[in-house]
Amino acid sequence: MSDISLNFSPLELLLIAIVIGLPGALAGLIIGAILLRRRPMLGALAGAVLGDAGWTAMLLLWG
Prior knowledge:
The chain is 76% helix and 0% strand. The chain is mostly helical. It has one domain (17-62). It has helices spanning 10-20, 22-35, 40-62. Helix 2 runs antiparallel to helix 3 (40-62).
């Protein structure tokens, strides 16, 4: 039996999720900026958030 435990704060978990989902965030950033031509910054932000969440979920569920 092991006495080692890993305790992460919510901020640390968020940072880990951001690092894991970075490829999805970059792809979403580009796609979002292209699709929303009238507001490219908003599209890039929304695409990055959705891409990051999607990539992280994909890795955690099917990885």
